[in-house]
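Case study 2.
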Amino acid sequence: MKNPSSPTIAVSNKVYSSVQELIDYCMAHNLSGIDYTLNPDSKNASDLQKETANIEKIAKEGFEIRFHLQFYSMEIADINIKKAKRSFEFHKDCIEFISNFNGEYATIHIGLGMKSMDELRYETALAHLSDLVECGREQKITVCLENLTKGWTNNPHGFLEMIEESKAGVTFDIGHANACPWVLNDQGTSVEFLRTISSHVLNAHVYEIEKVDEKTLEAYHVAPRKLDFIKPLLSELLCTKCDWWLIELKISEEVNHTLYLLQSFLNETLKQNKSFKEQMH
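Prediction:
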């Protein structure tokens, strides 16, 4: 195990309608990390400013905050170069905004709102991603790219190429890896996916799998009832420098249960490691 201590287990601001409820929950459960998703409908810097009071309230309580940039209509790889440029400039505004709160990590996506790969251009994606990574570095913010179930990040080899070319960090989404065509079509396992990009992983999104509702066609996250299915991935994550496990669920009962499972798993793992070290001595 490379990780000398347990990763921070974080929850999302998407769980509660009010920031105070979120703070109260974290304090009641002794959690120190909040993964803050900026309003997905934001379009400009003034929209971002509306979030200031909430983020300041969280920061004042001493929580570590990492930021999630989940904009379905702001695509930095858009084939329409004007739209791509506007989206890139907006993501730069987000990085500038995050720096006001001493944020150190921002997770972004490529192809989040696309219906077809024809809507995207690879060269634009790489150029804008690389520039955002550099913008982040100047502000002491690590820009991380998240793997999706579609596009260039939905398989380990395409994902690795983008990361290595752009120097971005990785936010590894367990549920996306388990639901991606590369895994579902038996080209490899999600553990093999993770191992391919493991040296770059800094954050993880933890839940079981992403599925699509047949009626609404909306994607949703499935919470684990037990850890059997994702335990091999969690064990693998402990061998990386990833120190942030976000429970990426929106229903508080599911967050509660997953928190219990993860804490039990980490306690048991640390106990086993301690016992192993003592035997070695």
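Strands lie at 8-12, 33-37, 64-68, 105-108, 142-146, 169-173, 201-206, 209-212, 219-222, 244-247.
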